[in-house]
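Shipment paperwork, digital attachment
Item: protein structure file
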Amino acid sequence: MFKLEKEVPKLKYCQELKELGYPQEGGGFYWIKFPHREDWITDYISQEVYKNYKNYGNIKIIKAPTCREMEEWLVQDFYGCFFHTAKWKDTWFVYYMDKRGDLWFPNLSKAEVEGKNEPDARAKMLIWLVKNKHISFKKEGNA
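Attachment content:
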């Protein structure tokens, strides 16, 4: 059975990613807040529906990226280290490991992140990478 919480980060991480410039356009999963509801819902919307929602100022939408979408932004070769995820007991870890299998990273205690699910852990790593100026959500050619 499909469980959305195993596919996309919590709203608070998606909000922070948006504030840091994570791309919001296109189809995919979104956190959506309709004016007549108090809570946010998560749903898959197409590119066309996204454009329609965006035109209504009273509907709030925030991209809820999947693990695969976030992986496109996670640096694969970072100072000679490579991106990894691992689960131990009920916790997911995202970290970088060198080619010999040694954990290494400048200030490793802050670069290794954890979450209750894989999407949260990946989102937290993206947030860390952007805040520490290791990556930017601007694609080349986009200013």
